[in-house]
Amino acid sequence: MQSNVIAVLFALASALTIAWGTVIRHRIAEEAPGDGTTIRSAPIIAVISRPLWWAGTFAALAGYALQIAALGFGTLLVVQPVLVLSLMFTFPMSALYDGRRVSKAETFWSLVLTVAVAVLVVLGKPTPGLLEPPLNRWLPALAVGGVLLLFIDRLAYTRVRRQKALLLGMVTGGVMGYVAVLSKAFVDIFVHQGFVGILTSWESYALLGGAVLGTAVQQSSFNAGALRQSLPAMTVTEPIFAFALGYAVLGEKFAVSGISWTWMGLALLAMVVSTFALSRRGVG
């Protein structure tokens, strides 16, 4: 059943849950970074040994489950912009954790982000795409994106902490963009073919691998530097990858023409600018 209203509600719940999990996991990464001199003191081991990190991780998984539910009711081009609002939820949670007040600037950029997302969803009127995209649509997208993200990942490990966090944030966003598209394909397969379909489709296993990879790279980006350096990159890169893949692979489209494309472009630009502004102001 297609219902953009229900899809938006599930996506908002997903954004809120993901925001909480992000703040918890990053704070633990800051508090227990490890010195890396032994296996036990390696950053990733120091982090995952904390019970609260697992709570944050399960929150992220719950958020992802809500995202899957949202995709069951609406198109990728409806759900993905709404998920960007997770950043709007992240910075006040981070401020609360730090014991500081939300500034007027943060409130302003939150409103800009909300309006931008609303324009993309309401004015864009995204239309559904293919239920089962053929493999010849997937292969070029997987190959080109995989090479690009691998290059950025390797480049990140030649940079200082701040640049490394930014680049790994981009890789995380790119991987999660693929996860979003695979999630939509997964939902469509389940709705039309049931459990047999998802057990026999390559998309299910690619989705699982992508989710694990994305979580690992995301934690690496958290360990590499402040949240303000990695979060904007991953938050902006994910919908850009998802939009491109939604068009190229799933065949979803925005039902706009003429001058409406100008407003859509401005909304996308406002989303990018407000995302970076909020990240740099609202998180540590």
What's the gist of this structure?
With 284 residues, this protein is mainly alpha-helical. Helix content is 81%, strand content 1%. It has one domain (4-282).
Structure commentary:
The protein has 284 residues and is mainly alpha-helical. The protein has one domain. The protein contains eleven helices and two strands; from the N terminus they run ααααααβααααβα. Strands 1-2 form a two-stranded antiparallel ribbon. α8 runs antiparallel to α9. The radius of gyration is 18 Å and the shape is globular. The protein starts with a helix and ends with a helix. Mean pLDDT is 81; it is low at 36-41. Keywords: Membrane, Transmembrane, Transmembrane helix. This is DMT family transporter. The chain crosses the membrane at residues 61-87, 108-126, 138-156, 165-183, 195-217, 229-249, 261-279.
